Amino acid sequence: MKKVRVGLIGTGYIGRCHAIAYAQASTVFPLEAELQLEYLAEITPELAAQKAKEFGFNRSTGNWQDVVSDPNVDVVDICTPNFLHKEIALAAIANGKHVYSEKPLALNAEDAKIMYEAAKKAGVKTLVGFNYIKNPTTQLAKEIIERGEIGEVVHFYGTHNEDYLANPNTPLDWHCVKEKAGLGTLGDLAAHIIQMSQYLVGQDIKSVIGDMETVIKQRPNPNDLSQMCDVENEDQATAMVRFANGCMGTIETSRIACGRKMGLSYVITGTKGTISYTQERMAELKLYIHSDDPARQGFKTILTGPLHPDYKHFCVSAGHGIGFNDQKTVEIRDLVNGLANPTAKLYPDFEEGFKISRILDAIALSAQEKRWVDIG
Amino acid sequence: MKKVRVGLIGTGYIGRCHAIAYAQASTVFPLEAELQLEYLAEITPELAAQKAKEFGFNRSTGNWQDVVSDPNVDVVDICTPNFLHKEIALAAIANGKHVYSEKPLALNAEDAKIMYEAAKKAGVKTLVGFNYIKNPTTQLAKEIIERGEIGEVVHFYGTHNEDYLANPNTPLDWHCVKEKAGLGTLGDLAAHIIQMSQYLVGQDIKSVIGDMETVIKQRPNPNDLSQMCDVENEDQATAMVRFANGCMGTIETSRIACGRKMGLSYVITGTKGTISYTQERMAELKLYIHSDDPARQGFKTILTGPLHPDYKHFCVSAGHGIGFNDQKTVEIRDLVNGLANPTAKLYPDFEEGFKISRILDAIALSAQEKRWVDIG
Amino acid sequence: MKKVRVGLIGTGYIGRCHAIAYAQASTVFPLEAELQLEYLAEITPELAAQKAKEFGFNRSTGNWQDVVSDPNVDVVDICTPNFLHKEIALAAIANGKHVYSEKPLALNAEDAKIMYEAAKKAGVKTLVGFNYIKNPTTQLAKEIIERGEIGEVVHFYGTHNEDYLANPNTPLDWHCVKEKAGLGTLGDLAAHIIQMSQYLVGQDIKSVIGDMETVIKQRPNPNDLSQMCDVENEDQATAMVRFANGCMGTIETSRIACGRKMGLSYVITGTKGTISYTQERMAELKLYIHSDDPARQGFKTILTGPLHPDYKHFCVSAGHGIGFNDQKTVEIRDLVNGLANPTAKLYPDFEEGFKISRILDAIALSAQEKRWVDIG
Amino acid sequence: MKKVRVGLIGTGYIGRCHAIAYAQASTVFPLEAELQLEYLAEITPELAAQKAKEFGFNRSTGNWQDVVSDPNVDVVDICTPNFLHKEIALAAIANGKHVYSEKPLALNAEDAKIMYEAAKKAGVKTLVGFNYIKNPTTQLAKEIIERGEIGEVVHFYGTHNEDYLANPNTPLDWHCVKEKAGLGTLGDLAAHIIQMSQYLVGQDIKSVIGDMETVIKQRPNPNDLSQMCDVENEDQATAMVRFANGCMGTIETSRIACGRKMGLSYVITGTKGTISYTQERMAELKLYIHSDDPARQGFKTILTGPLHPDYKHFCVSAGHGIGFNDQKTVEIRDLVNGLANPTAKLYPDFEEGFKISRILDAIALSAQEKRWVDIG
Predict the structure, then answer these.
(1) Which fold has domain D3-131?
(2) Which contiguous run of DSSP H or E holds residue A333?
(3) CATH of A136-281+283-322+354-369 given 3.30.1330.10, 3.30.70.60, 3.30.360.10, 3.40.50.300
(4) Residue C213 C-alpha, separation from nearest chain D C-alpha, in angstroms
(5) A124, B151, C104, C319: which is deepest, by most CB within 10 A?
(6) Per-domain residue ranges for chain C?
(7) pLDDT 10s digits, A97-123
(8) ipTM
């Protein structure tokens, strides 16, 4: 494949991030195929046309079906609200398109499985937008773990906490409605840290027990603020997990965690050292090595730099910083190079996306039934 | 009571901290009774005599029974290894002495209950050495919560992690032996953060489910390093808990958490704000208030100072710092003033100590049986 | 002007950053003119052609003179080594081109003055690449100061420290040679923090006294490592300054400051509060307001977000992070919109660049003559 | 000397800290002489009697002359307001007493010199209360430097900033009156960081140039708030210094630095590494070593522990924290052991105190005359 021709569906929050990443990707990275921004869909032709101009796409349409069936589109990039992922992905797959979907892959594991199996059967490549693992800093954490620098991982603690619904007066939005969002903070936020835990520990999660709570049980109706509506899914959740190799883990998530703006974090304890990270300081990693001189032990703050994965493509000096969209740019690089090379595999793909959905559903079930639930 | 005459049993690690606190208490605080360091017991008369001189005690003995029955002792201070707490406390209570015991109160909840009930029946006062809640900074956290500054508490995350057994070559010591220590890191470390969670949330823990692991399953025999011995209790544990009012909580503990030297920490999320603290920076508290101007929101780092509880007695300038032994000095002040005033209640007392033991046992049981366990 | 047609000269470290910023600018921001990447010059036609392809420029040349005289170029972007800034800028100005030059504007104030005056006389617009002031976080600091939130500024402490020459075995490079670099760390690094101090304090620096040192007096000859060459300019420097309104300031800079990867930082003390910042955590600002409740005073860590200047164009969620190149993208936005609007002024322009050069020269002179030197 | 019998004069802020330190010293440390709290003076016999009881002193008096001439006093501990240091010290010396004086030694270098020379001539030992250098953490910094771990020191940046006079409505107090305080923030605060710079760099300061400002020029008269009085000395000051070996240094001090509660800090850059410290986190030191693997470089946060100087006497576990008074306790240990051993030298003594006064005066002079001033 000499060109990767993209069809983008959806241009909201995350669609716009994709667009920024597409714009800079070929300047930042030496891509193995030419990236062509071919077709863009939005809910009206007018909005689609405007966004196509803004994002540099060749053509636009008010009908996403046009994109998934277009002969000049190689990969369909799904940035729509979550509840549409399944339908669009299946249509794209049916047309033999590769699919790049935002997370969560689907509203539940059942749907995710259908999507994963359809893609597998069709032989198309898939990628799910778990962009935080593309951050050079988290790639560095992965490298440190893989090289055995902290020994064998014995504990993973991870969070994805935000406070976008902390205010009880914030009206009900689609995140709070099962039909639109499926799970609450588990699907919206925890999907990231759970997937990241598997990436970093290098093991799948095999059993879980969760606890969760809808703290703010009603919110104002956005169409009539004097009326209250029920919040249909969880505001916060915790899960204890075990990875396939027996490693213990704890996952916490909340959308009402006052003060957390990008509270994705992890502390990974190994037999020889510990790594600590928070996404709010996305260009630094804390590393402790227990074999250091006991009188000089301590957590070291490593500023991400050109000696760490992918960073040098953004800047050749350490500590100069990377931003949110830069992670997405690494993801686009992976997409393009993965499609350019017939034998390459994209990661994290729909199989991983399905696994994450399965874990999320198991956490919800385990919380409801107050028991450990095995995965798969 | 015009005098509080102390009989100290045990002068190791924590006994020495008590001694330092006794030494400075009457200079730091205006005590409501005269503190008299009367009698000290150690395992030999010689060691006892030496320590009595070093710590400023009037008399000494190689037999702790002398102390618990001495007519000139008002309160028996138990700083022995954990497995002796019960026997000494019961003997002291039988002699009508008030008892000040280090934590954990006993090796299991059953023993703790016997001790608590004996003290209650005898009408003596009791105090357990959960000194971290006496830190002015944590008292400030309590004050902030009680005043409603962060709203209703909806989540408590707490840890007590250390790394004193992180090295697998460290020989087996008494912490690893059930008969001497009872539980592992749960009893040694988690006791603190669990008690602190009840103190800060202002609610008892009512149900728990734990998970735990003995990561390093064997250690060298301290008497013959070429032989390996089994480690008999857990190296790390996690528990999800629910407080009486339904508030969710997560507790984590480890004695093999590389890099944690005093890893007692908490993050307390409320409906209106969040508090964050780590004992490794024991004189600062992070506070977030969600009602701040959205463009000026953020966690504020408050340096403990004279406007916060008890601090001014150590220093009248903010940010000048307090140390580990200063917490113990506050505890001694509570002890002396609580004994000086007939109607005063000491806190945390044996009842609280028993409650903590009951929670610890429930966590261990829940981990073993892989199910939620209700408390009490 | 409906289009801004750029001629880029130089594609090294900073030229590449410009290219990334050009690539994403029109997606990130609603630009007021179309940005056209027209012409690119490098030292050979081959390299120029390769870079033009990589950076998306229409045409290329091995001769920078072609760019400055090309009728289809509106603005010449100078990313060459410092010693070429003057010649290229003057040639561009002579051809009536607007000029966007990297810092430092020139090797000394005399040259900078010639450049500034030439541009003024020719009526072309100019911009100097002091990109760190374009960071939304530093713009937020400016906003806080301008609104009087920290009262009147009474002290500015700023640093720009790095460690790229900390190792004495690093061979001599052009930074160490007067003819190529002019000043040492003052010109290379301090230029940024001095310009930033004027931006943030809102006052020009009016008198200075500096001290400086070439700590590593000789370095290996890069062409023959067995030979040593003299380092011709300063490794570290400090200056005390006074702003026009009498406000005190201190500037420190070093290129051998072990551990500083992007050690641009400032602490700005006002009569009512204090701001603290380090570029190594470029998306957070610390703010202290003295009128807070004395028992709740402390530095607040503000994560930059959509309520702060320019951030929302990168991401609509707070705390998600911005990177080095994002600053440059804001600079490009300023360039394009400033050129699109005939009456707009670019900032910081050659006049500001000249002022900074004049201050740098005064610091060097004051250090040599060991006396205060007045500016202008 | 088998006993060290102390005569304490003054029981305000710092006198109380001495008392706390005296109380715990013999429990914390194995002292080489018995510490006897013999005599205490305050401004009235009543206050003296009350404080003697509170602090555990044997006798008391309302007349400090009684203390300096008492045959049962070995060392006179001066905790009075600064302007009395000279008179009391000279009287004590005249009576052959050793003298332990709080800083600053005197209101100016001339007085300090008289005191130093009198002590030298009389052959008595002296100690000045620069207690921050007794902190185990700063002792660790000294150890790291002395062992060459950061190579040769090439730059010292130090601050002592507080905000106790930041509010312009705070009435004039003795700190602002030349006759009572001498210098302003230089004498009150900078004395500490300047002395610490000499201790840590291991070199005397040899030349200085300062700048300073009385930012709040008038304050309410404390006796009639409707009247304003002139502030007679500086609110903030900066100095560039050179140590005897040529090492550059910068000192900053302020008593109006909003947000700084205990803003004593240092950053010490060496040819092989860097140390960074702030007294507000008095139990942690940041250390960077440039020879670390470049991909794993970073500042390490070392928590002070039993492997570092003096810490183990307070607690045998790392990271458990030390407080302000613990520093003073180390100072008392140095006093007692230094007096117990006839050949021992106390440090920092009146000679060092005089040197610091001389540096402070030189900074003030250099600021006034706007020129570098050599020391000694």
Answers:
(1) Rossmann fold (3.40.50)
(2) helix A324-340
(3) 3.30.360.10
(4) 8
(5) C104
(6) 3-131, 136-281+283-319+354-369
(7) 999 999 999 999 999 999 999 999 999
(8) 0.97
